[in-house]
Amino acid sequence: MKSFRGIKLEKTLLYSLHVYFHKRKVLMRRF
């Protein structure tokens, strides 16, 4: 079983990746 901290870290990484790709899409649409 994973530790709570590990799960929290994974979720944070996934969320930041999601935000990063969304921002890239918006930027590419603009230029």
TrEMBL record:
It comes from the Eukaryota. This is Uncharacterized protein. It comes from Setaria italica (Foxtail millet). The lineage of its organism: Eukaryota, Viridiplantae, Streptophyta, Embryophyta, Tracheophyta.
